[in-house]
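Human: Respectfully, please carefully check these tokens:
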Amino acid sequence: MDNKPSFRTQKVELSIKKLVSEYLVTHRDYLSKFPSLRLEITSVKVSKDLRHAKIFLIHNISPSEFDLFKKAYQHSIQDLLAKSLTTKYTPRVSLWFDQTFSDSLKVQNILDSLS
């Protein structure tokens, strides 16, 4: 059994990443609520049946502020995908903090302390 995503899944992931990136750049009204917020989409993972999509982000705000951001903008991102994607089903979007970046910083700090 191959765990590699299909070409169709990869194509949908790339489309979602592009659409959400454009949304975050053009709709900057979130900066009025979160003035210091900086976001970067690291990856998008879509389920094999294309019904669920996890968008992994790196941000510079507290976890509680990120929860407020998710509540405020997850629905509008979902609407954007519903209008823009041409798939049979619109994936249910969930926003996640990408833990790998903070983990790599911790490892780097440990390595720096050993020197």
User: Anything to note?
Assistant: Residues 63-84 form the longest helix (22 residues). The beta strands are 39-46, 52-59, 92-97. Helices lie at 7-26, 30-33, 63-84, 99-114. The chain has a mean pLDDT of 89.
